[in-house]
Specification:
The chain has 465 residues and is mainly alpha-helical. The protein has a domain of 288 residues: Methane Monooxygenase Hydroxylase, Chain G, domain 1. Helix content is 53%, strand content 3%. The chain has 19 helices and 4 strands. The strands form 2 sheets. Strands 1-4 form a two-stranded parallel ribbon. Strands 2-3 form a two-stranded antiparallel ribbon. Helix 10 packs parallel to helix 13. The longest helix is centred in the middle third of the chain and has 31 residues. The radius of gyration is 23 Å and the shape is globular. The relative contact order is 0.12. Bound molecules: protoporphyrin IX containing FE. Protoporphyrin IX containing FE binds next to helix 10, helix 18 and helix 19. Pfam families: IDO. InterPro entries: Indolamine_dOase, Trp/Indoleamine_2_3_dOase-like. Keywords: Iron, Metal-binding. This is Indoleamine 2,3-dioxygenase.
């Protein structure tokens, strides 16, 4: 296959092993990146943000077995716990699908290494196949180890290493890389994209991905504001303060619009189907609180250290970018008011950082870059009387967004955990203990995690001078 290595990808590949500054100079031939932040250097597009500007191309013919399995998976497979007659009738086809995966040759990903878009596509295709494989397979008991066959496990681990991303289905796979244009002549927008791979094959799943995409695409406006701040030479100049003032006012409007998108989820995504039909496919191997068995990556030496929680919108890079820009202290490092509650203190403070490990490495680098400015916007606002009010207005708006998000999580996870599964789920015995605290995809107690996050946002507010 004839592929030309892109500078972005070479940069990404070499990050872990070479001195970044030397590498940057070699690639860019100047100090460009050190002087200003260019989103493209982090695989962030000025128009489409964390989405690639065009759908990912299909893999070259040598890897078509991966693509073909994914294309046939939805038709052949149902969740293992689904005991409806229609699902039981599919068992033979399901076993044939899994036997086919086990019979694949172990493909070397060498030819994909130099093409970022092919690597992303390979990750998406293999990770979808992984979740189909694991969750369709009948288990002897709930604690049985699940063996991921080497022909799937080895290339998935290798591709993930190249992309610096977890070897499991992530938000990037289901939302950022899993769409095609409705009209390829028109630019990317929520109305002009269609989600392709749906584990459950339901409208509910497509609607969740679409709502997440709406947040990501609206978030591009925030990225432009954030990058404008990062690239300001001197934040104390009159013109800079005026720009920050204008941008904070605009940011408040954007966060209000994001809140509206969150509100609209309730009319677009069915909570019962979300919890019982879609969500089980997303489970990873970390969700031990569900009694989920561990996964063994056959032929991969260090799999025990992998992050395997599964996709969560908590991995959305735009939401993290906003938090980092405003300096929301999720880790409770700073002494801010009101002091953390006992529940806040007990929440897992590394949650947001852990979610970042599920992002593509280049996007994680982008977030690091935003966080590395000498003076963040909170410090600038604290020191500049005119900026305190617009800064606090953004923080208040983000707090209201998180209030809305908590209501959604309560309705879609906490309330549903106490309901009976729909007949179409075909679940005879419910594994999750009724009445126990509901856990998120990441395995944390949902209410505690989200309240801690909302309260950390509130503490970001600057007190009256
Ligand atoms: C039906 C819709 C949704 C539900 C039920 C939901 C539920 C949850 C849950 C349970 C968590 C806890 C963490 C975990 O996964 O373990 C969480 C965290 C999070 N979710 Fe959502 N979510 C939804 C939509 C979204 C969307 C559309 C976004 C943005 C694209 C989003 C962004 C986040 C973020 C950034 C976190 C990390 C905690 C925080 O920032 O407060 N969520 N969500």
């Amino acid at each position: 296959m004839n592929v030309i290595p892109s500078p972005v990808h070479l940069l990404d590949r070499a990050r872990s092993t070479f001195d970044l500054t030397t590498l940057e100079r070699a690639i860019y031939g100047s100090n460009q990146r050190r002087e200003g932040m260019r989103p493209q250097d982090f695989d962030v597009d000025p128009q489409t943000g964390f989405f690639p500007p065009r759908p990912l191309p299909h893999l070259p013919a040598a890897f078509s077995i991966w693509e073909e399995s994914l294309a046939g998976a939805q038709q052949a497979l149902r969740l293992a716990e689904n005991q409806t007659p229609a699902a039981v009738a599919k068992r033979t086809a399901g076993e044939r699908w899994r036997a086919n995966v086990r019979s694949w040759p172990v493909l070397n990903i060498g030819d994909l290494r130099d093409n970022l878009r092919c690597l992303q596509r390979a990750h998406m295709v293999l990770a979808f196949n992984l979740h189909y494989y694991v969750h369709s397979m009948p288990k002897a008991n709930k604690d049985a180890l699940v063996h991921i066959p080497a022909p799937l496990a080895i290339p998935l681990a290798a591709v993930s290493k190249e992309l610096n991303i977890a070897p499991v289905l992530t938000f990037a796979d289901v939302v950022l890389w899993n769409w095609e244009f409705v009209d390829p002549e028109q630019p990317l927008s929520v109305g002009n994209m269609r989600y392709v791979n749906l584990l459950s094959g339901t409208e509910t799943e497509a609607a969740f991905y679409t709502a997440s995409a709406a947040v990501e695409l609206k978030g591009v406006e925030m990225l432009q504001i954030i990058e404008g701040f990062v690239n300001l030479a001197d934040t104390s100049e009159y013109s800079s303060v005026a720009k920050i003032y204008r941008d904070l006012c605009q940011l408040k409007t954007t966060v209000e619009e994001l809140t509206e998108i969150f509100r609209s989820i309730r009319s677009a995504v069915d909570p019962h189907s979300f919890y019982w039909i879609v969500r089980p496919w997303w489970n990873g191997a970390d969700t031990k609180a569900n009694g989920q068995p561990g996964w063994v990556f056959d032929g991969v030496p260090n799999y025990a250290s992998f992050d395997l929680a599964g996709p969560s919108a908590g991995q959305s890079s735009v939401m993290h970018a906003l938090d980092i820009f405003l300096d929301v202290d999720h880790k409770l490092v700073h002494h801010r008011q009101p002091a953390p509650s006992e529940a806040n203190k007990k929440a897992e403070h590394g949650f947001m950082e852990r979610m970042r490990r599920y992002m593509p490495g280049a996007h994680r680098e982008y977030l690091n870059r935003i966080g590395s400015v000498p003076r963040n916007v909170r410090q600038v606002a604290e020191a500049t009387p005119n900026l305190r009010e617009p800064y606090n207005a953004v923080v208040d708006t983000l707090k209201r967004l998180r209030d809305e998000h908590m209501k959604i999580a309560t309705l879609y996870v906490i309330t549903q955990a106490r309901t009976t599964p729909p007949a179409s789920a075909g679940i005879i015995s419910v594994e999750e203990p009724k009445g126990g605290p509901a856990v998120g995809t990441g395995g944390n107690v949902v209410s505690v995690t989200l309240k801690a996050s909302r309260d950390a946002t509130q503490r970001t507010r600057l007190s009256d001078a």
